[in-house]
Write a structure and sequence with these properties.
9-stranded mixed sheet, 22% strand, 16 helices, Arc Repressor Mutant, subunit A, globular, pyruvate-formate lyase- activating enzyme, alpha/beta
Length: 402
């Protein structure tokens, strides 16, 4: 039986880590294991709090992100997955993804996760050279990474993403090529390959700022990206988003929700949502998140209604912002943005909304029309931020520069 309900994605944030990696700027924390006992019940309560608002939707994807979701005990993971199924209409073919680090992926845990219905793993490998893993503050070595992948296969995972980072400091292209060749030989269904970015506030940022480490060389990064794109195409992987490649029919359904600007609800500390025309985010600190959810839940139980106290901010983006978001997110995809779909959605053509910017970047060789779709060129994929900045509304540019 098919459903006519609109689709919805759920994101569940597990913010705990054994150790914080030096390059990471995600909302994640080490040394907070004592909060886990309160965090899981709060996460389940938040799932229950949002369920009435999502009653008219069917959930197509569930994504456990972090942090390190693979640290979650099987008992807690079972309680969370049961709560999702009890409170939401889950599509029979829903994609259930869990992000994982190799150090936690032992055979019994993997088998338990698979039995709970997790059908896709996203493993943060990052490199297959031990010295590079040390530079990135990763807790595993290359041998452990390979063992984890084999264990996942043995546990029945037949849909796996491997995360890698290129453009590492002082990394010659040959070393990245060796890592990717070894990754291709493993034949994962999906590969995410990201250029190292030195994010403000991270340990890596301060090392670079103090001159202890050099910045990544942009020319080497560009060469590595172009080689990656060509090599993965030869290996049969479809390049469907700037940093993502997949074997046929294995693109990440959850991430496509973001890039298509479709609705999703985020649960957990610091999780973001786009739902009912609103963009909002939860408080970042796990202890404050737990307190806020519990206060909301208790008030809802006693009065029948309560504001979501865990939500720290929200906005109703105007039409101009929504158009810009759709363009920028859509251009991240290799298929680009459909002109007819854009007009149907916003009542204005791409040319009328962004004519000068589009013409300028077509002239620069960064954008191209292919039929009725506008997309980045291969050169534009390297310089995508130059295009995106030109599409942002003036007031967003002002906010960014402040």
């Amino acid at each position: 039986m098919t459903t006519t309900k609109p689709s919805l994605a759920l994101y569940l944030h597990i913010p705990f880590c054994t150790a914080k990696c030096g390059y990471c700027d995600f909302n994640s924390y080490e040394g907070l294991g004592h909060i886990v006992a309160d965090y899981t019940p709060a996460l389940i309560r938040e799932l229950e709090l949002w369920a009435p608002a999502a009653r008219s939707f069917q959930v197509s994807t569930v994504f456990f992100g972090g942090g390190t979701p693979s640290l979650t005990s099987l008992e807690d993971l079972e309680a969370i997955t049961n709560a999702v199924r009890a409170n939401y209409d889950i599509a029979p073919d829903a994609e259930w993804t869990l992000e994982a680090n190799p150090s936690e992926l032992l055979q019994p845990h993997l088998e338990g996760m698979r039995q709970l219905g997790i059908n896709r793993l996203s493993i943060g490998i990052q490199s297959l050279h031990d010295d590079e893993l040390k530079l990135l503050d990763r807790l595993h070595d290359s041998a452990r990474a390979l063992e984890a992948i084999e264990s996942a296969r043995n546990a029945g995972f037949d849909n796996m993403n491997l995360d890698f980072i290129f453009g590492l400091i002082n990394q010659p292209i040959e070393r990245w090529q060796e890592t990717l060749e070894r990754a291709i030989a493993l034949r994962p269904e999906h590969l995410s390959c990201y250029a190292l970015t030195v994010e403000p506030g991270t340990a890596l940022y301060y090392q670079v700022a103090k001159g202890l480490l050099p910045e990544p060389d942009p020319d080497i990064v560009a060469d590595q990206y172009e080689w990656t794109r060509d090599r993965l195409a030869q290996a049969g992987y479809e390049h469907y988003e700037i940093s993502n490649w997949a074997l046929p029919d294995h693109a990440c359904k959850h991430n496509l929700v973001y890039w298509h600007a479709d609705p999703y609800i985020g649960f957990g500390a610091g999780a973001h949502s786009f739902f009912a025309g609103q963009r909002f985010a939860n408080v970042d600190a796990p202890n404050r998140y737990v307190e806020a959810v519990n206060a909301t839940y208790e008030e809802r139980q006693s009065t029948g209604r309560a504001a979501m106290q865990q939500v720290k901010n929200g906005e109703s983006p105007d039409e101009v912002t929504m158009r810009a978001d759709a363009m920028i997110l859509g251009l991240r995809l290799m298929e680009g943005v459909s002109a007819p779909e854009f007009r149907d959605r916003f009542g204005i053509s791409i040319e009328d909304a962004y004519g000068p910017a589009v013409q300028r970047h077509v002239g620069y060789g960064l954008l191209e029309w292919v039929g009725d779709r506008l997309r980045l060129t291969t050169r534009g994929q390297l310089l995508s931020n130059s295009v995106f900045v030109d599409i942002l509304p003036d007031y967003e540019l002002a906010d960014t520069e402040a």
